Amino acid sequence: MTVRAILFDIDGTLVDSNEQHVAAWSFAFREAGHPQEVDDIRLQIGKGGDLLVPTLAPDLSEDARKAISEAHGEYFKTIYLESVQAFPDAADLVRRVKADGRRVVLASSAKRSELEHYVALLGIADVVDASTSIDDVEASKPAPDIFEMALKKASVDAAEAIVVGDTIYDVEAAARSGIAAIGLTSGPFDGGQLRDAGAIAIFTDAAALLAEIDRSPLSLSD
Fold first, then answer.
1. Per-residue pLDDT, 220
2. Does domain 18-83 have CATH number 1.10.150?
3. In which band, very low, low, confident or very high, does the pLDDT at 203 lie, cut at 50, 70 and 90?
4. Sheet holding 180-184, edge to edge
5. pLDDT tens figures, 98-114
6. HEC string of 76-122?
7. Strands 201-203, 180-184: parallel, antiparallel or unpaired by DSSP?
8. Out of 3.60.21.10, 3.40.50.300, 3.40.50.1970, 3.40.50.1000, which CATH number does the structure's domain 5-16+85-215 have?
9. Model pLDDT for residues 132-165, shown as the tens digit of each residue
10. Is the pTM of this model over 0.90?
11. What ranges do the domains of the chain cover?
C-alpha cells in the first residue's frame, strides 16, 4: 500500500531534548524525596509521566506520582525548555517529506504547549498536516493511543503510514498500532535495541535519514 503519511516523534527525534528531560525528572524525583539513578531515568525517556513515574517508583501513591509528574513538567518548562535545540537537518527532513507528497504528522508524548514550542523552533508550522500530544489521549507511549489518534487526525490507515522515532517506546507503540517504524539512534537506545523492538530500518539521526532518504523506507520508489 502507498505510504501517505509520516508520523514523527519530536523529543530526541527532531529536537535534542532528551537530556533536559532527564535533568528535569531527576530534579523532580529528588525534590520529592525519591531520588533515582540518572541512567535509570534516561532509559525511560520517551514515555509520558503516566508510565515513567510508576515504572521508576512503583510503591508511590497515585497522588505522589502525579505530583512528581507535574513537578517535572514545571521544571522542564521553566528551566530547561529554552535550551532545547533542533537537530541538524530535522526541519529539512520534515519539509522533504512534505515535498514528496506525504502528510506530515507530529505524534508526541509531550504536552501541547511544548509541541507548539517545538514547531516554532523548527519553523515547520506551514508543512504540518496534523499533530497529537499527550493532552489528546489517555496513555502515553508505548501504549498505541498517540499513534492511533495521529492516524485518525491524518485520515490514513496504519498500512499507509511510517513512524520515525528515537526510542523503543516509539517503535513498540507503532507496532501496537500496526505501523512500521524507522529508528534513530539520536536518543538513549542503540540500533540493536531499536531493531529488537521492531524497527524496520535504523539511522543515526534526522540528518542521516535525510541524506539516505532515497534508499530508506521513505523512498518514493518503495
1. 84
2. yes
3. very high
4. 130-132, 103-107, 5-8, 161-165, 180-184, 201-203
5. 999 999 999 998 899 99
6. HHHHHHHHCEECCCHHHHHHHHHHCCCEEEEECCCCHHHHHHHHHHH
7. parallel
8. 3.40.50.1000
9. 999 999 999 999 999 999 999 999 999 999 999 9
10. yes
11. 5-16+85-215, 18-83
DSSP 151-216: HHHHT--GGGEEEEESSHHHHHHHHHHT-EEEEETTSS--HHHHHHHT-SEEESSHHHHHHTGGGS
In a 3-state reduction of DSSP, which class is residue 140?
Answer: coil
What's the CA gap between 28 and 74, in Å, rounded?
9
Per-residue pLDDT, 1: 67
Confidence of residue 221 (pLDDT cuts 50, 70, 90): confident
Nine-digit cell string for 210: 535525510
